[in-house]
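Changelog-adjacent note: as of this version, every example in the card shows the full chain rather than a window. The one below runs 374 residues end to end.
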Amino acid sequence: MTSGEKNREIRTVHVGAASRAYDVLVGPGALALLGEVTRGVAGEARVCVVSETNVAPLYADRAEASLAEAGLDVAPSIVFPAGEAHKGLGTLGTILEGLAERELTRDDVVVALGGGVTGDMAGLAAALYLRGIRVVQAPTSLLAMVDSSVGGKTAVDIAAGKNLVGAFWQPSAVVADVSCLETVTPELLTDSCGEVVKHAVLEDGALLDELSARPLNAPGAAAGDVARVVARNIEIKRDVVEADERERGLRQTLNLGHTVGHAIEAASDFALGHGTCVAAGLCIVARASESRGWCSGETRARVERCVRAHGLPVTTDLPADVLMGFLAHDKKRHGDGVNLVVPAEIGRAEVRRVSLAEMRGLLGAGLAPAGDAS
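Full-length structure tokens:
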């Protein structure tokens, strides 16, 4: 396939965030354009790829070759151990020291090559190093493509909870090569679908029905179809981020499923994937909302139907008291309550302020046996 043919398969989504506007390139083979894109936003810069031990052997050479071919000065890459267990202050410090050792300046660029952990770690390092240098996100997992690489949220975990230390730092560009999903395990691909379903519930009923009928993790899904769905997810998130970059209002709706999902994730000591926990949290909140009359049974059933179609859980065996222990430390807590995002209907979410005592009751209702999703 020629370069021109490859370029015609690439979709571009423009993100006009208040602090920085940038383009997201989505499609098979997009990684070959990484150097051209990075040169376009940074000029003749020094570039350092930050990746992790699972992704670097697969894609670091290809990424660095593209950067070098574009005339960029490519510093030795920084590679840290893979996994959520390494998404902490120690790893962040190692990355920052590595950038300093490579003598990157304020004119230079970090390239985050990997999944959500890498994007968060490298993005936060870029935000902190020299009080902020450019970062280009090159997500290689579905979860990172549709969610964490876009919007500028960067963070690390600490003992008290997930993503409690971070900063808003928009990338200068995002290059999402859906061909990279061919090396993602079926389990990780399925986990990532939790955020895809969430976006459809938030904004696009037609997409939700399409995903219920043809799950994104079904064997043999065409790269073009995957790219289209990924681009649509990015558009959904883009619209929210442009309206509320710093999560003071509308952007809170992107936390649909996350309040309970993060509690499940933390209670499992991060043994369960983020998307899996979001999917369960989404269904638990939908059932709780139905019990309070905040959404209809039909809305709850459509949510559960799509989650089940992707082989994701619609509930958890963890008791409400255990989940409440983790909810009390969630970063979305405000005083003695939480801002809970609920699916009022497919395509519209609402943020409801609930007390911790009321949240305990909602968990009880949401953890009840899953309803009929036929």
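Structural remarks: The first strand starts at residue 11 and ends at 16.
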